[in-house]
Specification:
- This protein has a single domain, classed as Vaccinia Virus protein VP39 (Rossmann fold, 3-Layer(aba) Sandwich).
- Strands 1, 2, 3, 4, 5, 6, 7 and 8 form an eight-stranded mixed β-sheet that branches.
- It is built from six helices and eight strands; from the N terminus they run ααβαβαββαββαββ.
- The protein has 210 residues and is α/β, with parallel strands linked by helices.
- The model is unreliable at 1-11 (pLDDT under 50).
Length: 210
């Protein structure tokens, strides 16, 4: 299944566009299954259960998974429709997640810093419209030593098929390197619904600088 371009936060109509996608179910990125990259990183022992934040949580699949793994989770999305579905998912799975309707590029919530941040496809949208605002959120949301697992579209994708916004590795390093040291960057494939192989991406593990 081809992934369609994701709308970008930061424009004045961003909230309306995200709401429309979630209300109509036009969600090619929403597999309904926890991210395999997230599971692999947790299994590797990079981080233990702690206070965790998910940026752009959508319908809550990964936030719920983190809670099931013992994390104390806060999850943010601009779409109220997405958050409503995420809250229903958490109730069904009998886990507690603090879901917030908020803008990752202009975060209004007052939150204590987190030890782990997960981002499946938020940065590669936010950077196109309000990178300074997104970086300000990351700075507020993390403490020195915090881990940030970032999944972003990969500019080395050879196909012309629609998919997530594409980023060069050097852009990730340049844009996030002021706040974070880069533990590793490696290519991977996003998962499409039904377990199909999706677009090429970057999986990046970063550590907040002191």
């Amino acid at each position: 299944m081809e992934s369609k371009p994701e709308p970008a936060p930061g424009h004045t109509d961003a909230k309306v566009r995200w709401e429309n996608r979630y209300q109509t179910g036009d969600l090619p990125w929403d597999t309904g299954r926890p991210s395999a990259e997230l599971a692999a990183v947790l299994d590797s022992g990079v981080t233990q259960p702690c206070r965790a934040l998910e940026l752009g949580c959508g319908t809550g699949t990964n936030a719920v998974y983190l809670a099931q793994r013992g994390f104390s989770v806060t999850a943010v999305d601009l779409s109220a429709a997405a958050i409503a579905r995420a809250q229903s998912r958490a109730r069904d799975e009998r886990v507690v997640v603090d879901f917030l309707v908020d803008d990752v590029c202009d975060l209004q919530a007052s939150l204590e810093p987190f030890d782990f941040v997960f981002d499946r496809g938020c940065y590669h949208c936010a950077r196109r419209d309000n990178l300074p605002g997104f970086l300000a959120t990351l700075e507020r949301a993390t403490r020195p030593g915090a881990k940030y697992l970032l999944l972003a579209g990969n500019a080395n994708e050879q196909t012309e098929a629609p998919g997530p916004p594409r980023v060069q590795e050097h852009e990730i390093r340049a844009e996030l390197g002021g706040l974070f040291s880069v533990d590793w960057v490696r290519p991977f494939r996003f998962e499409d619904p039904g377990g199909l192989e999706g677009p090429l991406g970057w999986a990046c593990l970063l550590t907040r600088r002191g």
